[in-house]
Every structure is written in structure tokens, then in C-alpha cells.
């Protein structure tokens, strides 16, 4: 049986944690913090979502933790959404936490001036995914994250390769939620991904990480016919910014356009295929506007008359009377068929040409695929590990569909608390760095409510002490018998000094904005601001770790 129902940790994580605990124990000793033999306090570092803001801020936090010799106190590092982008870069280095300032500095520099994969290389990666039969917008978004936002070559190592054995780094945990379970407000929605296992935290249904994307039936893999999830796809899943569909489409469009050979031309006249590609861009911009789409289709039909290399019988037969009688779904289906026909004719015309190295042909192929997926909003598609699985501990509604859709966990809870609150991980202290937009205490409130629903341990919170407009840099929530939570909002009265500056920074570093390419000062300013939250609270952090050690000793 490939699906395992468990409440304990898998052997791979257990082995890693034992090695990591020895490093933690050595760190505690160097700071004169006494702990029970071989049983140091379990401390977890959590990073919230928040797009590029969260990515940069987590890097700033980790750099400062490294400079302040605090990183080796952490057993786990868990992320959601934008913080997973930072984690994916760092864990490419098996010893990153031993040289955090340098490694983090490189990741921050890449965002401003890094060298990413070529457009051709990105399209080749996408074509391979398409050939495996489960291409979704997640794949395109993962490519955009690496090549456009982060400025790095496609990170094609697999998550399983982050099992680096010696415990040098905190154990990484990535988070997502299942879309259908989210839509139906089911408590089993949380999906965690580690180097050893992936699966639903509640009810504890897991498979080996290397098996994600394979087809399952009744708890077993039918046939291993797809490559394992790599870090490109993982970042697309975990950091999808799915809450703003138009932002995703616009960003993918800008990424494609940035690689077209005529993008710097001042000429407004573009001939043949160039004009057809530009009209395709217009359709992508109007993927939710069917009236506007028809006008673009009319332009496209006219353009095809002067370009015999492309043809679509569906487009030629389309007229206004037929269009107005269609439902929106039928109209979208017509556009999908039109572009499929156009793409097939382009492929036939290009036989013998190196179409994978032709940016215009590549752009048209990408646009064709993105349009079809956008109309269905096909995001996070992967085989359901619980398809036809039968176990009394697993609700039937989790097992009906062959396909599941993994999306940004921040749509439900913008910090990975559920993974850290399981009995098996036995966490004593959670240090949560919150980079969210809006209410800086929302993650604490949602985590408290979810924990209460699922019977997970979470300390009591007092909302009267949570001033959304004037948060402090260090909030502690504690209750006997439950993990203590340190909550550190990114923008606060300590590092921003006043309410007006908090508002100014929130406005400057919004979640949905273009890549920070060439904006080195803006990147460094944000990283420094996040680092200040560590620097000014170093002694308080140490004190909470000491208290966690004392609590653990008292349990014996």
C-alpha cells in the first residue's frame, strides 16, 4: 500500500530530526541553556505568505538569525506562499544555514540582477510537462516565479533531494490546501510537503514525496509515468497568488511579452505571425470578457486572410449571430478550439524548423496553452493520492475524485501552523514571522480557530491586545500544556516608529506588483527592515527559548 495513515513521523523525518536535535543541543550548550539529555526544546520557525514581500522579508530574517547565531536553535522551517520561494532557493545549498548571510545575500541579489533561464529553456520545460498529461496554470506560474520574479535558472531539483541527511539545516516543510475541500469548508484541506512525505495533515494520509503526480487507485500507484514534482512546480503550487486571477494572467502575459524579439521596437506595424501573437495577447487580457473577446476574434480572422500559413475552420465559420446565442462556457470552448487549430497548423507549417528556439513560435504555443487553462481556471491539477482509497479514518469525500487541485495555502491560513501543531512533531515554541497584507494578527486568529476545530493545541489569545494599526514587534501567546507562540509582524511600531510609516510601508510593498528587477535598494530596505525585528528582539528570543527548555525539563 502506497498510502499510509499515520499519526507519527515517517522514518526519514525521524532520522533527520534526531541529527538536527544534536545540532540544536550543541547550540543550547553554547548559550548556557540547560536541557534534558537528548531532549532539547523543539522550536519551529514559521514564515507567512505575501508574495515578493514575504520572500524578501524571510530572507532578511534568516540572514539576521544567522548573523546573531540563532539559526541552529530551530528544528523546523515551514513556509506558505511567498516564503516558499525563498526556501526553495536556500535549500539548494545543503549547508545554507552555516553560511546564511552569504547565501541569503546571493538570493536577494538574484531578485534584482540575477540571470534566469532563457525563454526557450522555460518552454521546453513546459512542453515536457504537457507531454506527461497534467499541465496546469501551476506549471506556468512556477516558471514565472523562477525566471521572472526570482531571476534564477529553473530550479529543477526535486523536493526529495532536500533530504540532505546530516541535519545541517532546519527541516523544511511546504504547505498548500486542496481547492475543492477549501471551497466546501472541509477541515481536512491542509496539505503538507516535506522531503520524505506529502499528504493531508488531518487525517494523516501520506505518500512518499517521489510519488506525488502519479495516478493512484485504492491507495496504490497505478503506474509511475510522470516525473516527480520539482521545485519549479512546487513553487507554483505553494506560492500561486491564486486569490487574484487577473494578476496571474497579466503577469504570465508580461513574462511572455518580455521575450518577444520586437518588444523594443517603436514600430506599431507588426506583420503576419507577430500581429497574430499580439491579438492572442489581447484575448488573454480579456479571458473573462466574452464581448471584448469576439471583437478580437474578428480582428484575428481578418489577419489570417493575409497569413495563409495559419488557419482555423472554426474561426472562419464563426459569425456574430452564432456567437450571441452561445453561453459564456460555449464561447470559451470555441476559443479553445480556435487556438488549438491555429497551434496545430503552426506546428505543421514549422516542421523541419527549430521551433523550440523560435521565440515567436514558442510564445504562440504558450499563449495557446495558457488561454485554454485560463478559461477553465485549471490550477494545481495533480492526481489525487486518495482516489478510491478506503479507510475509516479518511472521509469518503476526500476519495471520490481522480484529480485534486493543490493551491496556495494562504487562501485559507497564511501561515503554516497546522503542520507544526501535530502531536508527532511535539513543538514547544513557534516563532512566527508574519509578512501578510492587511490585519497583522489574522494568521493568529485563524490558526486559533482552526486548531480549536481540529483539536490541535494552540494557546489562548486576547484580541483586545491586538492593535491592527499599531502592532508591536514581539507578541507572546502562551498557555500551560500548549506550545508558546511568538508572533512578529513585519511592519510595527518598533521598526517603523509610527503609524504613518507603517501605512507607508504597507503601501510601498503590496502583494501584487511587478518583479523587483533592478530595484536593489527597495529589496535591501525591506530585508533590513525585517532583519531589524530579529536584531532588536534577540534577547527576548533567547529568553523564550530558555523558558521552552525549562518547560520541557519539567515534563520529565
UniProtKB/TrEMBL annotation:
Gene3D superfamilies named among the record's database cross-references = Cytosolic phospholipase A2 catalytic domain (3.40.1090.10)
Q: Fetch the InterPro entries from UniProt.
A: Acyl_Trfase/lysoPLipase, LysoPLipase_cat_dom
| Keywords carried by this UniProt record | Coiled coil, Hydrolase, Lipid degradation, Lipid metabolism
The keyword Transmembrane helix appears for this protein: no
Coiled-coil ranges (or none): 519-551
Which residues are in the PLA2c domain? 1-556
Q: Which GO terms describe its biological process?
A: lipid catabolic process
Any idea which GO molecular function terms this record carries? Answer: hydrolase activity
SUPFAM superfamilies for the chain: FabD/lysophospholipase-like (SSF52151)
Its name, as the record gives it, is PLA2c domain-containing protein
